[in-house]
Design goal:
The chain has 12 helices and 14 strands. By secondary structure, it is of the alpha/beta class.
């Protein structure tokens, strides 16, 4: 199904090397499985990062051509992260490799220890990502005009996690976004507010200053729960300490504020999550397009979760897939929520599902055994 008028105007796929490129940090995730970080004696490792997860989902599940612009220290940990990225099929030619000083005094690779949580015990994330290579990626480290101009990229995605890593990261986001816009590449940005990342860079005031500036440059904006209030200063009209209980009507008012304040935006999308327990969430989403108005996902109340980390990024990947393949807005939001829901049934930050599984869930399929 397609709209009579495209939701976003995309570059021709034949003229572009990439369907999507993400800019962001890729960390090594250490996962204690069903144990605690403080008591485990072994970890499984995955790669992950808010912006990168989108590129990986679009490549591994949806079969699109994606790459990641980032930086890693050239040591065994960095090469392990590279190997994990390669297993996901994401192009690594845009990775900038930084020499290792033997200790990590000046630059290092980021680590992320993550407990999944269960029942009344919530998930826990412990990041170890100070002075990482990605946080020091300079605005001119990548030839953006060559990437978006000569090579060609249909869609560029980045977000507030990378922008919060350092002042240099903020400048790099701005340079990349401006170049992408100049060459006609659609730009999306996930607000992804993380108070811990902004704490050393001016707190919420700095987050609002940076995110408001970037929001004025992009075509598609993603947020979830507190992002619109914390990053853009949008009034929710309710108790901002409990944004998870906002309903569709409240979010429609919020999105209308955002879309009127940023006339450059063509699409705004948000997930809606009510946490019943670490293992059971109500999962929903709402999207708005300037040419067609609002569309709501098929809600999934009581969704059982194995690992919630990366569910929002997988929503973004499924949603962008819909726009890249010219689906209508309702189908985009349904593909996003289905992909996000399935991603949360497996461990790790990234999706392990197939397009057939996503499509089956979108079409109303059940969890019956497939034989």
């Amino acid at each position: 199904m397609t709209t009579s008028e495209p939701t976003v105007v995309l570059r021709d796929a034949k003229s572009c090397r990439y369907d999507l490129v993400s800019l962001g940090e890729v960390m090594l995730r250490l996962d204690p499985g069903d144990l605690r970080i403080r008591t485990t004696r072994s970890f499984r490792v995955w790669e992950g990062g808010g912006e990168y997860n989108v590129a990986r989902g679009l490549r591994r599940c949806f079969g699109l051509r994606t790459g990641v612009a980032t930086a890693l220290v050239d040591n065994e940990i960095g090469r392990l992260v590279e190997d994990l990225i390669l297993q996901g099929g994401v192009d690594t030619s845009l990775i900038r490799w930084v020499p290792h000083d033997g200790v990590g005094y000046g630059v290092r690779n980021g680590l992320n220890f993550t407990e999944r949580g269960f029942g009344v015990r919530g998930a826990v994330g412990v990041s170890d990502r100070g002075h990482t290579a990605a946080s020091q990626l300079a605005p001119d480290a990548v030839d953006w005009d060559d990437l978006f101009g000569r090579q060609g990229v249909r869609w560029f995605h980045t977000g507030g996690i990378f922008a919060a890593l350092s002042e240099k990261s903020t400048d790099t986001v701005t340079a990349a976004v401006q170049s992408a816009r100049h060459h006609g590449t659609i730009v999306s940005y996930d607000l992804n507010y993380r108070p811990s990342l902004w704490a050393r860079h001016g707190g919420q005031d700095a987050a609002q200053r940076v995110n408001r500036a970037v929001a004025g440059l992009v075509d598609v904006l993603f947020g979830n729960e507190e992002d619109f209030a914390a990053c853009l200063g949008v009034s929710t009209g309710s108790d901002e300490s409990d944004l998870t209980n906002l309903n569709h009507a409240s979010y429609r008012r919020i999105i209308k504020q955002v879309s009127s304040g940023y006339p450059n935006l063509q699409v705004v999308a948000t997930t809606l999550r009510t946490v019943r327990s670490a293992s059971v969430n109500d999962w929903d989403a709402l999207a708005w397009a300037r040419n067609s108005g609002f569309a709501a996902a098929r809600p999934r109340p009581g969704l059982e979760i194995l690992d919630r980390v990366g569910g929002g990024d997988s929503f973004v990947a499924g949603f962008i897939y819909g726009l890249l393949t010219d689906l209508n807005l309702k189908s985009c939001v349904d593909y996003g929520t289905a992909h996000g829901a399935l991603a949360m049934t497996t461990p790790g930050d990234t999706s392990m599902v197939t397009l057939a599984e996503v499509t089956r869930l979108v079409d109303g399929g059940s969890a019956r055994v497939q034989r």
